[in-house]
UniProtKB/TrEMBL annotation:
Membrane spanning residue stretches: 56-76
Keywords in alphabetical order: Cell outer membrane, Membrane, Signal, Transmembrane, Transmembrane helix
Pfam families: YfiO (PF13525)
Lineage: Bacteria, Pseudomonadati, Thermodesulfobacteriota, Desulfobacteria, Desulfobacterales
Family annotation (NCBIfam families): OM_YfiO
InterPro entries for this protein: BamD, BamD-like, TPR-like_helical_dom_sf
Sequence ranges assigned to domain Outer membrane lipoprotein BamD-like in this UniProt record: 80-266
Top-level taxon of the source organism: Bacteria
Keyword Plastid: no
Name recorded for this polypeptide: Beta-barrel assembly machine subunit BamD
């Protein structure tokens, strides 16, 4: 027997402890006198089980309420329209010149049904709607996308023509930047080269003439400015570019007349 136990049990006044140091499990356990830990205290198994049950119940209740609220909202929401319905809706709006509404319908079709057989038509009609709204920059992007994705589609020549028209509609006067005219001319010429049998290639012919006249007019405008400021050498260079680059234009004829005037002026100066 350990000394500490002997010291306790040998004293008469501590006899009452002797009976308590008997336990079924191991020596020294107070037999039946030590209170069993309460199951609801933190750190006990039942405490964790009860807490987890409470949390799970709360979570399930919250999910149920969210589903109930969401379901009520869905009950009042109209079902989404099908791709054919959106296509017809867009066509009708476009025919009635409600271009913004048409654009929205075609855009929804492409967004909601990206793999629908109607997406190809919706794409070019999105571009047409932008063009009708005079949103030429946006229309040009979609027309170019259509040509890239559908090079062999029957609508592609028209898409290329419309792409050129987006630049054509943004052309400025001859005293302004001519980037739009150059871009339009480039696309019209490409249309004639890539789709020579298309009726749009023939329609492009008149537009090409207008683009070239605009570019020729810009050259003549600059040449006249140099002429007025007596920068004759610079004027001659511009006029030569005009005559050689755009010989069929009315501006080229005017350029020849102005070039002859400069030649006469320079001859007189040489004789002085």
């Amino acid at each position: 027997m350990p000394l500490w136990r002997q010291s306790i049990t040998s004293q008469p006044e501590n006899k009452w402890l002797k009976d308590r140091f008997r336990g079924p499990d191991f020596p020294g356990q107070l037999n039946g006198q030590v209170e069993k830990p309460q199951d609801t205290l933190p750190g006990t198994p039942n405490f964790f089980q009860g807490t987890m049950k409470s949390k799970i119940f709360s979570t399930l209740l919250l999910l149920f309420l969210c589903a109930l609220i969401g379901g009520c909202g869905l009950l009042g929401k109209k079902p989404e329209k099908t791709a054919p319905e959106l296509l017809v809706e867009g066509r009708e709006a476009f025919e009635n010149e409600k271009y913004r509404r048409a654009l929205e319908s075609f855009q929804r079709l492409r967004d909601w049904y990206p793999f629908s057989q109607h997406v190809t038509e919706a794409t070019i009609r999105i571009a047409d709607s932008h063009y009708a709204l005079k949103e030429y920059a946006e229309a040009a992007i979609v027309y170019a996308e259509f040509e890239r994705l559908h090079p062999n589609n029957a609508e592609t020549p028209r898409a290329v023509f419309q792409l050129a028209m987006c630049h054509f509609e943004r052309m400025d006067s001859v005293d302004r930047d001519q980037t739009a005219a150059r871009n339009a001319l480039y696309v019209f010429l490409r249309l004639q080269e890539d789709y020579p049998a298309s009726p749009y290639a023939e329609k492009a012919r008149e537009k090409i003439r207008a683009c070239r006249e605009s570019l020729a007019g810009a050259e003549l405008y600059v040449a006249r400015y140099y002429f007025r400021t007596k920068a004759f050498t610079a004027a001659q260079a511009r006029l030569q570019t005009l005559i050689n680059g755009y010989p069929e234009t009315p501006q080229a004829k005017e350029g020849k007349i102005l070039l002859e005037k400069i030649r006469q002026i320079l001859e007189k100066e040489d004789k002085k």
